[in-house]
Design a protein that fits this description.
The chain has helices at about 25-30, 45-60, 75-85, 85-95, 110-115, 130-140, 150-160, 190-200, 215-225, 245-250, 275-280, 290-305, 330-335; strands spanning about 10-15, 35-40, 65-70, 120-125, 145-150, 165-170, 175, 205-210, 230, 260, 270-275. With about 350 residues, the protein is α/β, with parallel strands linked by helices. The chain folds into two domains: about 5-70 and about 105-245 and about 320-335, TIM Barrel; about 75-105 and about 255-315, no CATH class. Helix 9 (about 215-225) links the parallel strand 8 (about 205-210) and strand 9 (about 230). The strands form two sheets. Strands 1-9-8-6-5-4-3-2 form an eight-stranded parallel sheet. A three-stranded antiparallel sheet has the order 7-11-10, with no helix packed on it. The longest helix has 16 residues, at about 290-305. Belongs to the nitronate monooxygenase family. NMO class I subfamily. GO terms for molecular function: monooxygenase activity.
Length: about 350
């Protein structure tokens, strides 16, 4: 069975759901000696199966799959109000807004069947604690199971479920926080303090995540007790990533000089480059994931097609200025060299 402590390089590529994560990226990181990841989020089970096969065709190295845990929508009525607010955005981009679907579980059951019947070395979870029965089934199938946590209490809860390891995600991370409670404001404890706090309540191996984009960042995380460092933003500009052209350009554009945490695009707190859409809608966005994700999807697609970064969810961590356009293998080796 895979163990992250056996990696040649103590670097984990974050899953990067929504397009940037690709089989090419996961395979390149695995071939370099790190742990590559695929994102199950926003894909059908069939689509995930295709990505797993494509990754296996490119590498014999270890890779994982990250799965979103479905949670109740805290404020479904708020999504309806938000839909009305977005009417002007829909007109701006010439799209129709969908009717939100509260029953959307992101194909949870089918994805779990796939991962149990055709196991991959690592399965990680975010957005909540995986059910104990799911953890048991994946362990029996031979997968290393990881839960993403953002607080001491979440770490205690996840440890009790029987997972093999925890991904400790600090507030510096780009993209969604893995908070168990979708209505809660994310804990602000920085990763450097969160790692020892979590270590105090669990003996499980810890992966560190949150703004790690340099070798020095990785070295600090390992010194704080992590067995490996998970990096996402560092890979966004790599040629293997599926990052859209306007997203790539924004990451290198000095005009996008700040990251903020917002619910404006999906209804869950996520860190990204500050843009016009966030400025216009952050204050009124309700805690209504995945309904807001559904509502803004056509807006984001139209903006990407138009090359307009100001209605894109430009997820990025606090270290985004260190992201480079190097090949993923070079980025992996550079991160480990610290």
């Amino acid at each position: 069975m895979f163990d992250p402590r056996d990696l040649r390089l103590p670097v984990v590529q974050a899953p990067l759901a929504g397009g940037p994560g690709t089989p090419e990226l996961a395979a390149a990181v695995a071939e370099a000696g790190g742990l590559g990841f695929l994102a199950a989020g926003y894909r059908t089970a069939d689509g995930l199966g295709e990505q797993i096969r494509a990754t296996r065709a490119r590498t014999t190295g270890p890779f994982g799959v990250n799965v979103f845990v479905p949670r109740p929508v805290p404020d479904p009525a708020g999504a309806e109000r938000y839909r009305a607010e977005l009417a002007a955005e829909a007109e701006r981009y010439g799209v129709a807004l969908p009717e939100p679907d509260p029953a959307d579980t992101d194909d949870w059951d089918a994805k779990l069947r796939l991962l149990i019947e055709d196991p991959v070395p690592v399965v990680s979870f975010t957005f909540g604690p995986p059910p104990a029965r799911v953890v048991s089934a994946l362990r029996a199938a031979g997968s290393w199971v990881v839960a993403t946590v953002t607080t001491q209490d979440e770490a205690r809860e996840a440890t009790a479920l029987g997972v093999h390891a925890l991904c400790v995600q600090g507030p510096e991370a780009g993209g969604h926080r893995g908070t168990f409670d979708p209505a809660a404001d994310p804990d602000p404890t920085p990763l450097a303090a969160l790692l020892p706090a979590v270590r105090a309540v669990t003996g499980l191996p810890l992966l560190a995540a949150g703004g790690l984009t340099t070798g020095r960042d990785v070295a600090a995380a390992l010194a704080a007790g992590a067995v490996a460092a998970q990096a996402g933003t560092a890979y966004l500009r790599s040629p293997e990533a599926g990052t859209s052209p306007p997203y790539r350009a924004a990451l290198a554009d000095p005009a996008f000089d700040a990251t903020v945490v917002t619910r404006a695009f999906t209804g869950r707190p996520a860190r990204g480059l500050r843009n016009r859409f966030i400025d216009a809608h952050d204050a009124t966005a309700p805690a209504a994931y995945p309904l807001l994700h559904q509502l803004t999807r056509p807006l984001r697609a139209a903006a990407a097609a138009a090359g307009d970064p100001h209605a894109l969810s430009l997820w990025a961590g606090t270290g985004h200025r260190h992201a480079t356009a190097e090949p993923a293998a070079e980025i992996t080796r550079r991160l480990a060299a610290g």
